[in-house]
Amino acid sequence: MSQTNQRIDGKRLWDSLMSFAEIGATPKGGVRRLALSHVDKTGRDRFRAECEAQGLKVRVDSVGNMFARREGRDPARAPVLFGSHLDSQPSGGKFDGALGVIAGLEVIRSLNDLGIVTEAPVELVNWTDEEGSRFGHSLMGSGVWAGVYPEDHVRALKDTDGVTVADSLDAIGYHGPEAARPFPADAYFELHIEQGPILEREAKQIGIVTGAQAQVWYDAVTIGQDSHAGTTPPSTRKDALVCAARIIDLVDRMMRARGEDGRGTVGQLHVSPNSRNVIPGEVRFSVEFRHPDQAEIDRLDAQFPREAEFIARDCGVELQLTTLFRIPPQPFDPACIDLVRQGAARAGYSTRDIVSGAGHDAVYVARHVPTAMIFTPCKDGLSHNEAESIEPEEATAGAQVLFEAIVARANRTL
Amino acid sequence: MSQTNQRIDGKRLWDSLMSFAEIGATPKGGVRRLALSHVDKTGRDRFRAECEAQGLKVRVDSVGNMFARREGRDPARAPVLFGSHLDSQPSGGKFDGALGVIAGLEVIRSLNDLGIVTEAPVELVNWTDEEGSRFGHSLMGSGVWAGVYPEDHVRALKDTDGVTVADSLDAIGYHGPEAARPFPADAYFELHIEQGPILEREAKQIGIVTGAQAQVWYDAVTIGQDSHAGTTPPSTRKDALVCAARIIDLVDRMMRARGEDGRGTVGQLHVSPNSRNVIPGEVRFSVEFRHPDQAEIDRLDAQFPREAEFIARDCGVELQLTTLFRIPPQPFDPACIDLVRQGAARAGYSTRDIVSGAGHDAVYVARHVPTAMIFTPCKDGLSHNEAESIEPEEATAGAQVLFEAIVARANRTL
After folding, report:
1. Cβ contact (<8 Å) for A267 and B383?
2. Would you tell me how many other CB atoms lie within 10 Å of the CB of residue B21?
3. What is the reported pTM?
4. ipTM for this prediction
5. Which of A233, B184, B314, B389 to pair with B90, CA 20 to 30 A apart?
6. How far off is chain A from B231, nearest CA to CA, in Å?
């Protein structure tokens, strides 16, 4: 196995990550860079300036997605895209999203330093509002770009202060002139932290992401009867929380029955009236299942509503279950996956094939452009948390594989 | 069984209840009369005026408890007390508390109309802040009076706007000159709606309350690890909500194992971070058990922490369980209970002995004064709810039995 002698600069990458993490830094070591906020604008302005300093030309589309282009030798070739997102969760970490963009900047710097002219142009992308924390709509920029979400609908979304996406884009000057829609592109590569524990547990440096899981999401409401906790005997209770609790247990058991590939979670739950001595009359909660295999999701989707209804009937409680959405699995492009695999091998990193459990901009981009993703480990699998942490050498490995894949794709013989 | 020929005026009672329910009336037919608010002041002022119009002398103590005295023939005798509370839940009903006070007013009017002079004086009481909705401390007025709660502690309690009990008493002019502590009293009778379904289900007109349940209350916190719902495999999950759900199920099963006398409730629950695609890292919830038999509460109190801990260990989650308080059962006074029983029999009402599931001012008063309570049915057992409802004849029956018990006690041969 021959090792490459073209290396990105790990120290420069780390310094750049740490410097960028100062924008919206929180006291606990995380970042708060909500999409289209003035903090996000500061990040975007810095990103644009650094791209321009590297000789790139930056375009902005109508939902604020930013494309920084480095020309190739052959102007007729479609560009190789790569990137991620610069927005964060409200109490987010330094690396979720930012790693993919800042590593992309390091790829550009390395191409410049090494004097490499690729055959195809390359374009570094910052997708708008991946997190969905402010306007309640994740994967917003890539979703509009990919035609998954109507732009008018997204522009009208409001944050909790009633400010729309459209007004926020104008306010920070990132309502760009370019239409947000797919343009001819040769490939898309996205480097991201795993946001899970698998690579760390197995001591693998690189996750070769072969696709994204299938998902089904529900909203559930259990409706019983709120009544006095001290006076209502067992036989007349209609306790919406006891019913919800048994459904939460069901979700967990259905997940575990699928082994290590199964995911089943109740993340959000509200009790009403939520008073110590009142039997809960209504509980609203989210339910989601994920699995790499669509057939398994189909079985879960057939089984869960039926078994949850049995529980509700047994509790004398009404269950209202609404399917929010079903997402089919998104396999990534075999050729692009191979370039990631070859790049990791050339650089000498240990690898593992992995299916993305989280949603990523790459999942929507993959509907139009051959796509692959690269995962790096993160400490304790922790993400969406200010304590999110990775090692400098893990960032270096990810950026190096990204570099390898981009150069190989941009220089491939057509 | 001889029926009494001294009857309270059911129509006047009902009109008075409806008129009083206009103070703090809500659009959905309930009342919002938070303790020591200006709405409460309006209710108190009306109560005082109606008492004075009946020739009573009204005293106010230092926590705002109101005592309206009708003199008896023998000034040396200790008074027979009766009453309840005029404050309500934030979305409360027309009858919880108000029934006991307004029926007391009807007893006074009937005594006057019938020209009855009792041997002992009688005193109608309005206890301050029974509900605890505003300052988070139920049974406040009767608790301070009975010496259960230190007055300084209670005066310093704040509502969510930071206003103290002391300031609120001053603001509405109900910081009275009399010390809030037990004085010699011959008995205490309290009429209240059942707030449960038992009397209605068994078609009984009067509940003869023999005492109050023993209780044990806990605060529980399950501490796991919040992590990404899509990326965290079953083997590494530490889901605080799955753990809490299994403990909620445990509480319900432990209650049902005790039959119809058992009570076990999780009424309040908060999930953190409470985000759809994040496995909950922390859940805080209340747990309470009630039972008429102290030995059963002792067994629950020994068994529950141990079994909950087993569940937590099995889930890989930390459980922090704090005992908030244990309340022993409070038996009422046999002679006072008998007077209620005899009164109901004289008036020809169907009865059932019942143990109070809820806390009542009577439970604290009973520590110093021979006490009994009278329950009337309420529709569907519903209380702490704007839809709380009783029939006029149910109010009449309760007031008539209250009248019988008071007259019998105040005229008893010493």
Report:
1. no
2. 20
3. 0.82
4. 0.83
5. A233
6. 4
